[in-house]
Design goal:
alpha+beta; endopeptidase fold (from Nostoc punctiforme); six-stranded antiparallel β-sheet; two-stranded parallel sheet; 5 helices; 8 strands; rod-shaped
Length: 300
């Protein structure tokens, strides 16, 4: 490499032929005008001293630079405006999507609230109907119990010797009276038991609206004026054992052994019994075939 290669050149850049011709033409035209004016004027005319300022290439370049800068600024402003318009359009589109999504969510919540309200109203209506049905059933049972009490009182007044033992030799009349009293007592027991159908089963329950098996049997016999023990195996140990083929209304049915029964109920006739079965069924009237008892005893 030459040792002088790094030294910058001080030569002036060559001017293009077109630019030189332009300047030469302008200068020539001006000089010609001056010459013609001088020849045509008087001899004693004063020399022209006014200086005409000629445009230079530097001023033309500055004007061109200004024009280019203005054009670039305009292009930049236009690009900025287009960018702002695009951003505004995107913001509008996003806002529209957000509004649509918010409306859909509001509609969904409103529908869910309407469904929840309808569900609660249905539950409240069902609960009101259930309470009303229970009230009607309770009123019916209370009426039946009142009628039963009145019937029992009337039967006692009409038969003052009911439930008492004979105080001497037996006779046909006393035998007939005993049979009539027993029949009336059994009817009272059956009527009381049937009046409790629909009540709840509660372990240890003794009424008036909830029972266990032995509590119901004890209360039914108490309504007829007969005292029974509280426990099921004690109840089934009383009276006389009878076969299931020779049952009479008012007989006590038991499940298990007679001296160790775990469940008792009251035979009501027609092959059916009433008993407080369990928490899921409550007090029911069922056929003997539904749950065949182990045996029966007769207290009356």
């Amino acid at each position: 490499m030459s040792q002088t290669a790094h030294i910058p050149s001080h030569r002036k850049p060559r001017r293009s032929a077109s630019k030189l011709a332009l300047r030469a033409g302008v200068a020539g035209g001006v000089l010609s005008t001056i010459a013609v004016a001088g020849a045509a004027g008087p001899a004693n005319a004063e020399p022209v001293t006014e200086t005409i300022e000629m445009p230079t290439l530097c001023s033309l370049g500055a004007d061109l630079s200004s024009a280019v800068a203005a054009s670039a600024e305009a292009s930049e402003q236009e690009a900025l405006d287009q960018s702002l318009e695009a951003q505004e359009a995107a913001a509008l589109e996003k806002a529209a999507k957000d509004a649509k999504k918010a409306k859909a969510e509001a509609d969904r919540k409103a529908e869910a609230e309407r469904a929840e309200k309808a569900r609660k109203e249905a539950e409240a209506k069902a609960e009101a109907e259930r309470v009303a049905a229970e009230a009607r059933a309770r009123a019916s049972r209370d009426a039946a119990r009142t009628q039963l009490a009145s019937t029992s009182a009337s039967s006692s007044d009409a038969n003052p010797g009911a439930g008492s033992s004979n105080d001497g030799g037996s006779s046909a009349g006393s035998s007939s009276e005993s049979t009539q009293v027993s029949s009336g007592t059994a009817a009272s027991i059956v009527a009381f038991a049937r009046a409790q159908v629909g009540d709840a089963y509660v372990s240890g329950g003794t009424g008036p609206n909830s029972w266990d098996c032995s509590g119901l049997v004890q209360a039914a016999y108490a309504a007829a004026g007969i005292d029974l023990p509280r426990i099921s195996y004690q109840q089934s140990s009383m009276g006389t054992s009878v076969s299931l083929s020779n049952l009479q209304p008012g007989d006590i049915l038991y499940w298990g052994s007679r001296s160790g029964s775990y469940h008792v109920a009251i035979y009501v006739g027609g092959g059916k019994y009433v008993g407080a079965q369990n928490p899921s069924t409550g007090v029911v009237e069922r056929s003997l075939d539904w749950d065949t008892p182990s045996g029966a005893v007769r207290i009356l």
